[in-house]
Amino acid sequence: MGLSRRLALVLAGWVAVASVYFVTPAAAQAQRGASITAPNPGEQTVSDAYLYLLGRVLVIRQEHADLICQMVQTLGRSALHRRA
Predict the structure, then answer these.
(1) CB 15, CB 21: distance < 8 Å
(2) Cβ contacts of 84 within 8 Å, gap of 6 or more
(3) Full-prediction pTM beyond 0.85?
(4) Which residues, other chains included, contact 23 with Cβ-Cβ below 8 Å and sequence gap of 6+?
């Protein structure tokens, strides 16, 4: 048996095991044929989610800018503009 065939069998086994142990309740319900419907979010919910995500983006952007500033201070401007 070739190596690729053995790897394929091992991968198929892992997928089978994972599908048994990691099936979510929603996936199990869908497998039984029941439909899954999510309630429509209200305007306030959508607005709150948007503001939360916007805040997260701004925090990550600021952290990125701070890291770049710290790198420039640590390495010095000459190290960043050196030519090879």
Answers:
(1) no
(2) none
(3) no
(4) 31
